[in-house]
Amino acid sequence: MANQKWQAGIAKNRALAKVLGISGTPGFIVGNELVSEALDLNGLKALIARAEGGKGGK
């Protein structure tokens, strides 16, 4: 990557991922829950609903 601004942003994100224990993609953090696997739409909606306290999604 030739653009140093991009490199700095990527380095910052990688450092945060390391602190959070994320070592690959995909990874989702919704609320207080970390999911390190692929989710289909229903799985993502369920994750959001749990973070909202079971209120359900749109």
Could you please describe the fold and organization of this structure?
- The protein is mainly alpha-helical.
- It has a domain at 24-58.
- It has helices at 4-20, 41-51, and strands at 28-30, 33-35.
- Strand 1 (28-30) and strand 2 form a beta hairpin.
Give the helices and strands, then pairings.
Layout: H1 4-20, E1 28-30, E2 33-35, H2 41-51
Antiparallel strand pairs: 1-2
Concise synopsis of the structure shown:
The chain has helices spanning 4-20, 41-51; strands at residues 28-30, 33-35. With 58 residues, the chain is mainly alpha-helical.
| Gap from first CA to last CA | 39 Å
Q: Using only CA atoms, what is the Rg?
A: 15 Å
Mean pLDDT, to the nearest integer, reads: 87
Biggest sheet: strand arrangement: 1-2
- How many individual β-strands? 2
Individual helix count = 2
Low-confidence stretches: none
Strand content: 5-15%
**Main β-sheet, in a few words?**
2 strands, antiparallel
Class from secondary-structure proportions:
mainly alpha
Net shape: elongated
SSE ordering: HEEH
Query: Which percent range fits the helix content?
Result: 40-55%
